[in-house]
Amino acid sequence: MKILGIETSCDETGIAVVENGQRLLGHVVLSQIDIHQAFGGIVPEVAARSHLEAIIPICQQALDEAHLTWAEIDGIGVTYGAGLAGSLLVGVLTAQVLAVTKNKPLYACNHVEGHVYANFLTDSEKYSVCEALPKFPLLALIISGKHSQLVLFENHFKYQLLGQTIDDAVGEAFDKVARLLGLPYPGGPSIAQLALRGDVQAFDFPDAKLQNQYDFSFSGLKTAVLRQAQLLAGGDYSLSSLEVAKHLDLSTRANLAASFQRAAVTTLVDKTIKAYQEFKPHSVVIAGGVACNQELRRILKHQLPINIIYAPAHLCTDNGAMIACLACYQVMENLKPINPFEITIDPSLSM
Ligand code: KG4
Ligand code: ZN
User: Fold this and answer.
1) Ligand (nearest to CA of 296)
2) In b/e form, how buried is each residue of 260-271, taking b as 16+ CB within 10 angstroms?
3) Is-contact 185 37, C-beta < 8 A?
4) How many Å is the Cα radius of gyration of the chain?
5) How far apart are CA 79 and CA 82, in angstroms?
6) How far is CA 284 from CA 272, 281, 297, 300, 334, in A?
7) Could you report the per-residue pLDDT of 252-306, keeping only the tens digit for each?
8) I want to staple 282 with a disulfide (CB 3.0 to 4.6 A). Which of 135, 140, 149, 294 is the partner?
9) Cis link prior to 186 (omega < 30° from 0)?
């Protein structure tokens, strides 16, 4: 069974073909990072327009890479939420039209669930994929530019949300702190790189105390970094986050980056370890763009008694393969396809 997956929830046009939820046959991601970098972040209207220009050629390219024609495709999976409305619309409308004209069943996919399914791709001749298949019960730390969630999966599509962010997502915090340190978008890789030259103990940033021990909060941490930067820049607290970096030398900015990254990673690790101890899952998966973070992988590996599972970087950030894989599992678990005339987008879809 071969499924074509379409992902356009944010600023990546990702299309891929996956066989039986495991084998990655064709996989193309067109990132718009270069376009949005000039604005310091994603501009929704620009993102939607770029998806529109790219989606049909990328779809053909994914089929070509898989050496398949439409006749050999058994179904289509598409992200219908969460994400930017205009971006989601381009993917969903395209999938809708393809499902009707090519006469294929259509599967509506939740983007956040999709991130976890990137870790079920363990076979490919062409692309790097995961080494080991996750086992249930599975604890997933889903961390991206829009999500920070700890989820316990009892089985496919049977899960419990243990906690989530009450304000900013962790990737959003990386992006905002990067901006205030004068670093390019996306902030995660920029901070990680600058942090290599800094001292993780230079500044002691606070950890949020929350009622639900598995919830996250990153907005206070981001503000604490801004206040520290303003203090170091001469104590002028009216300096905006766009101005403050100009008043700081490279080593100070590196120390801020390293201390911020350590604080963010420590929170993620502490909560994951607590959940591991309480629920004793058979696998722990980290998923989403922030799962690329080497410091997180290193500290979690060190503290967790079992191997952590994560995908190669190209499958951690947004892509069509995770959506195709999720749709395969919908088929294998006998979930019903959606009527292509009834699918709608849901920009604020939660788990
Ligand atoms: O999953 P993703 O591609 O898109 C969303 O669903 O949001 O994640 C993008 C996020 C961005 O906030 C980016 O800064 C962050 O992932 N990111 C990282 C790293 N690489 C990407 N954060 C920390 N360290 C990294 N190495
Ligand atoms: Zn994502």
Assistant:
1) 1
2) bbbbbbbbbbeb
3) yes
4) 20
5) 8
6) 9, 7, 12, 10, 26
7) 999 999 999 999 999 999 999 999 999 999 999 999 999 999 999 999 999 999 9
8) 135
9) yes
Of 217, 117, 208, nearest in space to 166 by CA:
217
Q: Which tokens hold the place of 140?
A: 């997933």
Q: What ligand 1 atom has the least distance to the C-alpha of 317? A: 3
Q: Is the entire prediction scored with pTM above 0.90?
A: yes
Q: Beta-strand (E) ranges in the chain? A: 2-7, 12-19, 23-31, 75-81, 106-110, 138-143, 148-155, 158-164, 283-287, 308-309
Dihedral of the alpha carbons of 216, 143, 95, 185, in degrees to the nearest 10:
110
Q: What are phi and psi of 2, to 5 degrees?
A: -120, 125
SS3 32: coil
The SS3 of residue 270 is: helix
- H or E stretch covering 62: helix 44-65
How many residues are there in the chain?
A: 351
Gap from CA of 238 to ligand 2 centroid (Å): 34
User: How many other β-carbons are positioned within 10 Å of the β-carbon of residue 249?
Assistant: 8
pLDDT tens figures, 110-141 = 999 999 999 999 999 999 999 999 999 999 99
Distance between Cα 340 and ligand 1 center (Å): 31
In testing the pocket of ligand 1, which one of 290, 295, 318 has its CB within 8 Å of the most ligand atoms? 290
Single-letter residue type at 242: L
Distance 143 CA to ligand 2 centre (A): 8
What lines the ligand 1 site, CB under 6 Å? Answer: 10, 144-146, 171, 174-175, 186-189, 192, 288-290, 292-293, 317-318
